[in-house]
Amino acid sequence: MRIVKKLSPKKLYLQQQAHVAKLVNVAVSEAVEDYLLRVRVSPWAPKAGNLWLSAFLVLFPMLLLPHQIWYGKRSIALNSINFKFHYFCLARITAMDFINQSITDLKQFGKDKHQEYINASPFPSIVIDNFFNEEMLSKVADEFPDLSKLAEVKTYDNHNEKKLEAKGEKHFSENGRLLAHFLNSQPVLQFLQELTGIKETLLPDPYFVGGGYHEIKPGGLLKVHADFNKHEMTFLDRRINLLVYLNKDWEESYGGNFELWDKDMTRAYKKVLPVFNRVAIFSTTDFSFHGHPDTLSCPPDRSRKSLALYYYTNGRPKSELNPKAHATLFVNRAGVKDDIEKEPLTFREIVVDLVPPILLRTVKKIVR
């Protein structure tokens, strides 16, 4: 027979209040997380205001639970949840800025860089050093996981590409997730709109299809290519790539240069070493050829790490239109024998080739 120990009224009261405290803390924690994401989209907001709200978020749960304070160490909820969690939140809120402090107006910064972007060769692009707050980006880099040791990671190992790609945001660290969400936020979208001059409204990809954490190990590569042109779930048009490099103390001899090639594939107009806190942004079309075509030669304990964000629009200029949705298009470099291997046709591509366009458009409308 199981003997149930009867709790004294005082212990029962403490147990009930600790349970209530945990429920309240969950609610407050969710509110704090929501606030963090909203503040993240305004990195240039006055820090004093953030500090006041931070103090409120720390004190508010204590005001909700005054009875907890009287029991001191006996209150598990107050000691283990309130103090530790909300002190942690305070530290995060007062160090929210991901953007370099020298950039006081991100939208204006985009306007200032617009001409440099649209006039770049071989296609609209820009490379920006020290775009982010170094301390915060350093946390993202330090927390970057070894993708080869994780499940639900897409592994490419063929002639054209040898790389690792995390699926979605499952493997993002806390700081990595906050950075990725910030890069999908309104201020960044406005910055990109001004930078690129794209007329159609830019939309982020919360699913990180093909994006997110990327890693290339020694011996890896990514042959020159043009990217897939349609989002597989929303059917939106892919317009911009934003790449954040996270490689500290990266040497020239390691290789891994991000290369931008001309339309005729005669030469690389630009080679970008993937050093820490360097950002590459470029317009995505069927002829914006780019890649990391030569094998990586970094030490065995190093790898090439990056965070990739892609942005979309509903429609694009007629000059860029391709009637067919396509996957990655690999292309040969001039003078390089057997540079790429032709990719086999996918089932989707076969269907697109065989089904009449009017029927495809009807199906897409139904799916949407």
Could you characterize what this model shows?
About 13% of the residues have low confidence. It contains ten helices and twelve strands. By secondary structure, it is of the alpha+beta class. Strands 1, 2, 3, 4, 5, 6, 7, 8, 9, 10, 11 and 12 form a twelve-stranded antiparallel β-sheet that branches.
Report a brief summary of the structure:
The protein has 10 helices and 12 strands. By secondary structure, it is of the alpha+beta class. Strands 1, 2, 3, 4, 5, 6, 7, 8, 9, 10, 11 and 12 form a 12-stranded antiparallel sheet that branches.
**Helix percentage range:** 25-40%
Whole-angstrom Rg? 25 Å
Question: What is the straight-line distance between the termini?
Answer: 60 Å
**Share in β-strands:** 15-25%
Structural class: alpha+beta
Number of continuous helical runs: 10
Question: What is the tally of beta strands?
Answer: 12
Question: Averaging pLDDT over every residue, what do you get?
Answer: 80
* Unreliable residue stretches: 36-49, 64-96
Largest sheet: 12 strands, antiparallel
Order of helices and strands: HHHHHEHEEHHEEEEEEEEEHH
Shape: globular
